[in-house]
Design brief:
Elements lengths: L2 H11 L1 H37 L5 E5 L7 E2 L2 E2 L10 E2 L17 E12 L2 E8 L1 H7 L5 E3 L6 E4 L1 H6 L7 E4 L2 E9 L9 E5 H8 L4 E2 L1 E5 L7 H11 L3 E5 L1 H43 L1 H9 L4 H38 L11 H27 L3 H6 L2
Parallel strand pairs: 6-11, 8-10
Antiparallel strand pairs: 1-13, 1-14, 2-3, 4-12, 5-6, 5-13, 7-10, 8-11, 9-10
């Protein structure tokens, strides 16, 4: 009879002990797989949501002047003229190394206009890019086409205009195609038109005041992309919106640290379950081990039998733990995100690691009981018969 056959028969005879070890390891592996899978799913979901957050890189003209504003408040009422960016220069952004990471580039032409004795800021925008840069926008009406504008909520209230009204800007009559619902940002106080319309009204054909870039995606090297865009547009100042990037990184980092910490605790508990159970099993098998030693089994044979038993149970626990963890993740993810599109695919790499981890935990935890079993004095064991 081989050592493997002896180990298998021992497992069949001791179903209670095996079930206890199996339960401990399955719960541990299941918990770890659930935490890691949930972390990956949540990370993916957060990344997708943050990709829709909007612009996180700004391109503005370089200036040698210091700003006289703080917190959005202008101090002194002085505005400096700045050199503007040529619209055609934005094409260079497509040639940077990480161009594939850029979701949208939104040029803006800005200028002050007079509407019914009110000074208002007119913003010409690319509304295809706006859908990506400002996904939270909701317009009562329609986005503007040629010779149309949309009004920010505050602007519409102050100048008392609504959808369908007409306004005159620099001698040109334009129709209000919609009103922007409150955003809580400076957009509420602007008038928006198509980029070409604003450039014509402001006399800025082919020029833009600034550009917004949406490049927030999984593993996007924001700092490196800022440098790449700066090299492509040497006449412009390129800035990352650090708050968005840092917040994203810190959130994901904290989430990962927490998940790894909980996983380590669960693995430790699983190891203790195996250790205690195997210690009890060795004590119960004192006579059996004494007989093995008396008929010529070496200490290494006894150790191998215990290791084989543990490896079989641990490997099976790893498989069961992964499958249960996957199922638990699919249930748990519904409570952590409102998104219905979060998918939990089978991760063969994680499955492999789950099985390897279960086997390693089992073997390490059973090492001490195996050594105790190997050191048993066969004479003492046989006297108990």
């Amino acid at each position: 009879m081989t050592l493997k056959e002896i180990a298998l028969k021992n497992l069949i005879r001791r179903k209670g002990k095996v079930a206890f070890i199996l339960a401990g390891l399955v719960i541990g592996v299941c918990t770890v797989v659930t935490i890691i899978s949930l972390m990956e799913a949540m990370t993916s979901d957060i990344n997708k949501k943050l990709e829709k957050y909007g612009a996180n890189i700004l391109i503005v003209p370089k200036s040698e002047k210091l700003t006289l504003t703080y917190g959005g408040i202008s101090l002194g009422g002085v505005a400096f003229e700045m050199e503007e960016i040529r619209e055609k220069d934005l094409v260079r952004i497509k040639s940077i190394k990480n161009a594939a990471n850029i979701a949208a580039v939104g040029p803006l032409a800005l200028g002050v206009i007079n509407v019914d004795k009110h000074k208002v800021l007119l913003a010409g925008a690319d509304f295809k890019a706006i859908k990506i840069l400002k996904p939270w926008w909701k317009v009562k009406g329609n986005l503007p086409i040629e010779n149309e504008v949309i009004l920010g909520d505050e602007t519409a209230r102050i100048i008392n205009l609504r959808t369908g009204s007409f306004i005159e800007i620099n001698g040109q009559k334009l129709r209000v195609s919609g009103v922007l619902q409150p955003t809580g940002s400076q957009d509420d106080q602007l008038i928006f038109s198509r980029l070409e319309t604003a450039q014509s009204l402001l006399g800025k054909e082919g020029r833009i005041s600034m550009a917004e870039v949406a490049a927030l995606c999984t593993a996007c090297p924001i700092t490196e992309m800022v440098k790449q865009i700066s090299d492509a547009l040497p006449s412009a100042k390129v800035m990352a919106i650090q708050q968005v990037v840092k917040s994203r990184m810190e959130t994901l980092s904290q989430f990962k640290k927490l998940s790894y910490g909980v996983s380590a605790i669960v693995i430790l508990v699983g190891s203790l379950v195996v250790l205690v159970t195997m210690m009890g099993s060795v004590r119960e098998r004192t006579k059996e081990i004494g007989i093995f030693r008396a008929i010529g089994f070496r200490k290494s044979h006894v150790v191998r039998i215990i290791f084989i038993e543990t490896a079989i149970v641990s490997g099976f626990a790893g498989i069961m733990g992964y499958l249960l963890g996957l199922a638990a993740t699919k249930i748990a993810v519904r409570f952590f995100t409102e998104s219905q599109s979060v998918s939990i695919p089978i991760n063969f790499e994680l499955a492999g690691w789950a099985i390897v981890m279960a086997v390693l935990v089992g073997l390490v935890s059973s090492a001490y009981p195996a050594l105790i079993a190997a050191r048993l004095d066969p004479n003492e064991a046989l006297r108990a018969l």
